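Handoff note, outgoing to incoming analyst
You'll be picking up this chain. Sequence as last confirmed:
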Amino acid sequence: MNTEEFRTYCLSKPCVTEHFPFDEVTLVFKVCNKIFTLSGLENNPPKINLKCDPEKAIQLREEYDGIITPGFHMNKKHWNTVEISNLPQDFIKELIDHSYNLIVKSLPKKLRNQLI
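Most recent structure output, in case you need it:
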C-alpha cells in the first residue's frame, strides 16, 4: 500500500475528514473530529500511526518486529507506527479498520448511531 491508497481507503469510511493540523507534511484523518490515523507524507518508506487496543498493540509489535513499532510521537500504549510498504494491503486495511472502530466506539451514542 502506498500513501495515496492509504488516503483513499481512509476517506472511504463514514464521516472521515482529512486535515493538516500540525504542519503541511503530517496528514491526519479524523472521524467525528477525533484522530484515528496520521501519516508523515515525507516518510520513506511510508509509515502511518494507528490507534490500537493495548494488548493487541504489544502482540503486533512482537509479531512484526521492526515493521510495527510503538507510536512515534504518540501514547505508546495506545498507538502503533506501521511501515505500510512491507505488509499486505488487506492486513493494513484491517489495522486501519481497527483504529477507526476504536474511535467510533469511544464516541457518544448519538454520534455512533449516525455512523450506522
